[in-house]
Recover the amino acids of this structure.
């Protein structure tokens, strides 16, 4: 009886093996995001086995404060219809420029191109150039949990700083991607690896391509709300170290900003930002500083120094200046650094590409020119509707 049962089992198995596979020869349906373009926002931290030690500006073993090394990145990614071709560009800041502890540096900053190199600066500034800088891209469902796909690509950088100012470099990425209804938004995280950063990836669909490239024309007009957040670099970062030493700031502390910006039909852009950086806590605690909590007015324009600054893939490079008197009591940026401002690079997304992700790429002032930001900070711009400007109604967004 047992032999007969075993024979039936084996015969059934052989029959199944011999039967034609109903799915054989059929192409695997590509994920719903194939054939689309997306703005990307990366946020996360480097993993660490070093316990938190010390406080404030006191560093722990190896020169690292207790705070983890924060990471941010923004970019654009473009998928062919079958996802066999993946292109895009990325600006990536992993801990900023850290080189005080051992002379070689632990931070890594990369971008498709270098901007402001002819200006007064410590180093060049990473920026977009509208080109394709991705290689080795692939999308697969093999071995992935149900509903997930594996996205892999290598981002190549013509601006790359890894401690010793290497002129070029590259970083491979691998993300588990979860789709949503209509694939308008995708979410993902990095595949666990002992040498990989821990990142969250949010991808927002771009709805038209090519994207216009001029301030004052849609989508670069109209009113947008802004929300920003960021984390300071470790004191191994020269800019963060100097800033914290001068202000009593806390290494690795967290800050936010909220406000709005309006770009008129003639391309003039202005806005306002309110800051909260670690609740203004300082070491040692001096008299209460200007809080930045009321308002810092600013103006912005496409990068005025490096030629084209907005590109058909929806990326752009923006130059921001705080405006108002140098003694403005509501804006310590101006009080301590006349002519203060910063640069960002941005990626448009959403309905008619009216929203954007932005990353802070440098700080500047009359006294020190352009320097690395000393923090890892990103902003989200959300379209707030057209705003009347004289007899004109703006339509669109930065």
């Amino acid at each position: 009886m047992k032999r007969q049962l075993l024979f039936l089992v084996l015969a059934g198995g052989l029959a199944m093996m011999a039967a034609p596979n109903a799915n054989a020869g059929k192409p695997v349906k590509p994920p719903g995001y194939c054939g689309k373009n997306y703005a990307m926002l990366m946020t996360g931290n480097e993993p660490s086995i070093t316990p938190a030690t010390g406080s404030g500006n006191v560093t722990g073993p190896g020169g690292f404060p207790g705070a983890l090394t924060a990471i941010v990145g923004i970019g654009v990614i473009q998928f062919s219809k079958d996802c066999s071709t993946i292109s895009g560009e990325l600006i990536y800041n992993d801990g900023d420029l850290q080189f005080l502890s051992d002379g070689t540096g632990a931070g890594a900053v990369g971008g498709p191109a270098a901007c402001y190199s002819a200006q007064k600066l410590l180093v060049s500034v990473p920026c977009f150039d509208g080109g394709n800088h991705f290689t080795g891209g692939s999308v697969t469902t093999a071995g992935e949990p149900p509903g997930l796909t594996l996205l892999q690509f290598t981002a190549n950088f013509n601006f790359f700083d890894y401690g010793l100012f290497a002129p070029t470099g590259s970083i491979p990425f691998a993300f588990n991607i979860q789709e949503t209804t209509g694939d308008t938004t995708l979410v993902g995280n990095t595949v666990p690896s002992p040498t990989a950063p821990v990142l969250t990836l949010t991808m927002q669909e771009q709805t038209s391509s090519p994207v216009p490239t001029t301030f004052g024309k849609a989508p670069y007009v109209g009113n947008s709300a802004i929300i920003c957040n960021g984390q300071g670099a470790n004191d191994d970062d020269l800019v963060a170290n100097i800033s914290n030493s001068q202000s009593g700031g806390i290494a690795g502390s967290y800050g936010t900003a909220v406000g709005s910006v309006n770009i008129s039909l003639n391309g003039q852009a202005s806005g306002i930002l309110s800051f909260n950086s670690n609740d203004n806590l300082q070491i040692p605690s001096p008299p209460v500083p200007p809080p930045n909590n009321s308002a810092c007015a600013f103006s912005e324009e496409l990068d005025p120094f490096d030629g084209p600054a907005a590109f058909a893939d929806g990326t752009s490079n923006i130059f921001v200046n705080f405006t108002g008197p140098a003694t403005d009591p509501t804006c310590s940026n101006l009080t301590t650094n006349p002519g203060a401002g910063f640069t960002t690079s941005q990626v448009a997304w959403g309905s008619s590409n009216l929203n954007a992700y932005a990353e802070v790429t440098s700080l500047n002032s009359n006294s020190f020119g352009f320097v690395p930001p000393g923090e890892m900070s990103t902003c989200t711009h959300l379209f707030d509707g057209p705003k009347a400007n004289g007899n004109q109604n703006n339509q669109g967004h930065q």
